[in-house]
């Protein structure tokens, strides 16, 4: 298996270009991030070129403090699309192939209509990119519009864009939906990226209620060859948290 270091959680003590270098030195196959916007894209592109790593994904901006994205919020369409444009431009500038469009805190039919319209805009604006949507668990992200994988599947079906995919984060989906083996098998055709962390503490993928060796074997048997996102919160220095990597890499 191959792994991508999620630099939203790993090496957060370092500036993003140095975090990319640290991930390369630790043996990761790729990197991904959340919100890189405080860094000039040239600095990120240079670190990626220097290390040979790809940046697999980045997120649209969350909005004001306390917000968690704008794309499903009625009345905020102009801001949401400006953030989609900004994320797409940034992704293009650094050669990143996926943008996670964050829905925001909203509920109901009007939110769904707005989210679908904004996803349509993102998919048409950047047909060469993968546009990701990610169900988040409602303990960490109360009120977030998208919290179940079946809900995401319905939205992807209704949107009808081949570049709209599911971010299958095993951590969130174990909390919200469970049955991850069958869910991975069933949803594989529309999965654009996979992430994981232990449940319930969002720590290293070597303890807790999820067996990550099993998850990796399921992914391997389904023909998944892309790096899986290590999106966990290390307790101490990131470099001291990588004991899981050799065993899962050997699967
Ligand atoms: O799981 C997460 O929290 C992230 O993948 C994300 O993009 C939203 O914060
Ligand atoms: Mg995630």
TrEMBL record:
Molecular-function GO terms, alphabetical: hydroxypyruvate isomerase activity
Record's keyword annotation contains Cytoplasm: no
Keywords: Isomerase
Any single biological process term in GO: glyoxylate metabolic process
Residues of the active site: 134 (proton donor/acceptor), 231 (proton donor/acceptor)
Coiled coil: none
Gene3D superfamilies given in the database record: Divalent-metal-dependent TIM barrel enzymes (3.20.20.150)
Domain Xylose isomerase-like TIM barrel: 20-247
Source domain of life: Bacteria
Xref: InterPro entries: HyI-like (IPR026040), Sugar_Epim/Isomerase (IPR050417), Xyl_isomerase-like_sf (IPR036237), Xyl_isomerase-like_TIM-brl (IPR013022)
Keyword Isomerase recorded: yes
Pfam short name (any one): AP_endonuc_2
PANTHER family tied to this protein: HYDROXYPYRUVATE ISOMERASE-RELATED, ISOMERASE
Family: Belongs to the hyi family.
Protein name: TIM barrel protein
Originating organism: Paracoccus aestuariivivens
